[in-house]
Every structure is written in structure tokens, then in C-alpha cells.
Amino acid sequence: MGKPDEYFPFELDHDPAVFGLVRAHRDGPFGRLHYLHSPDPSGGTVTVFLHGVANDWTTWTPILRVARKRGDDLGELLLVDLPGFGASENTKDHLDMGQVGDLVLDVAAELGYRSVRLAGHSMGGFLALDMAGRNPGVVTSVHLVAGAYFSVIRTVQNPWTSLVRRPRVAAAYFSQSALATLGPAGLRGMALLRRARLLPLTLRGFLAYPWRANRTFLDRLTVGMRPRSFLLAAQNGADYRPEVRWRRIRCPLVAVFGVKDKLVPVADMVDLRRVCEHAETHLLDSCAHFPHVEMPERTYAFLFGGTAR
């Protein structure tokens, strides 16, 4: 199948005012946290968007553009730069997922919200699932994009076994780990590839059609690399048991996967349905690891088509 016409239709937006959002900061256990929210919160439920590694809040702007284009109301919004990513700090030597989830819920509660629905991509999806398992009375629904991390968790726990059983996942994970281990040298290499317009060479399996990625996505990916934060985030998988923790989830759960995703493969969708039998899952042929950016209209329809308010 060739590249669909609707592939990568939107640039990423960097101005929160475009979506009627305001910036805010607060001090927390990891340092200064940056987030954006709807002004004059009215309480009730807020939709919280959680980004993945090497991203920040802007990765969700194509989904927000689709909602505006359709005239849908997603309700009040909260978009968080997770600790160590985007404009948020991480002054600690760890990135404990339980603490991060509690921090996000604290921000929502401080704004006056009594409950949250969670939208998470990749690492943010992993976080959303963990939050839903820990906080059944607060999380009303979960909306995932490439966010069921079974294969990544297994790779972290058994790297050599994964090289044999899940070579594509292992290769994708270890390529990120190698880049993170290089630290500043790796970042300089990424910046050099971006200036030479060769960065898409590194994105096969993360994007279905890497050479069709637009400027703002590639720019944001380059500046969003946080080697230390990636390594700290990966430590959460060392002793994590998704089969136990995610089986506690009872709220509605919808998940979108990309057929060409080498980091979160179709096998993870099967595992999610096994552990969370009520999960509604969707597979997009012309997407890899970033369906919400690659094909935001179709992704939005699956994630929120029947739940916009």
C-alpha cells in the first residue's frame, strides 16, 4: 500500500493559545513542572494528555487540530511535559512512575478536577495504564496510542532473550539505549543528521514513511531527545508486572496501534486484549509508532469519536 493522502497532514503547534490553553508551572518532587491547561477550570473531569520519550506536549496538537476541525468538544484539557522532558525538570536520579502518576493527579486536583480521563502515547501510555491500575476511582477512561509496553518491558527484563524472540523490538529499544548512552555526543549526531536532512534514515519502524515527516515533527524530535531521562524511564520496566497491574483496570480502555511499529508491535495489542479483556483495540495499516501524528484523523476517530463532549 502506498502512502495515504492524509499522512502527516499537520505541523506541530507550539503556541498553546491556538487551542485556548494557558501555560503554568509548579514545583514538585522532580523540580519545576511545566504544563498547559484550560483556563478557568470548572471541576469535574479533565482530559490529560501524556507524551512519549523524546516528545513533549506538542506531539498531541494534531489530535487537538482534528477535534477543532470536526467541531468536537473534548472538554477541559491538561497537557503535561513529564519530568525530564520538554520544559519540565528532573532533579532526581530516578523517574519513578508511581511518583510521576501521583504528580499528574495532584496537578489535576489542584486545578479543581475530581476525575481524569487519560490519553497516553508510548511511554505516556505505559504511565496511563499504570495510573488507571492504581487509581480506579479517579481515572474514568484510558485512550492509548502505541502505549501497551509488553514487549519493551520484556526486553528491559530479559534483553538477551528478546534479541532472539523479539529482534525488531530489541533492535529498536537498544538503538534508543545506545543513543542515550552516548549522551551529548549522540545529541550532536542527531542534530547533524537533522541539518543534513538525513534524520529520517534513523526513523524506519518508528514512522511508516519517514521521508514524509514534516519539519516541525523532525525539529521537535531532535530537540526533545533527553538521554538521561530515557534511561531513567526505562528503569521502571525492570520489575514491572503488567499482567498483574493492568488486570485491575475496569474503566473503558481504547487503544490504537500501528501495523509498522517495531517498538510496540501488534503482539502487544494481542497481549493487551488478553490482560484487559474489555479493551477496544484498533490497528492502522499505514502507521508505525506515531499514529496520532502520522494519521491523526483516523486515530482521533478511534480514540475519541464516540466520547467527545
From TrEMBL:
MF terms from GO for this chain are: hydrolase activity
Signal sequence span per UniProt? none
Q: Does the keyword Hydrolase apply?
A: yes
Which InterPro entries did the record assign?
AB_hydrolase_1, AB_hydrolase_fold
Every copy of the AB hydrolase-1 domain together lies at 48-300
- Keyword Hydrolase in annotation: yes
Which Pfam families does its entry note? Abhydrolase_6
Give UniProt keywords alphabetically: Hydrolase
From the Swiss-Prot or TrEMBL record, give the protein name: Alpha/beta hydrolase
Report the source organism. Amycolatopsis melonis
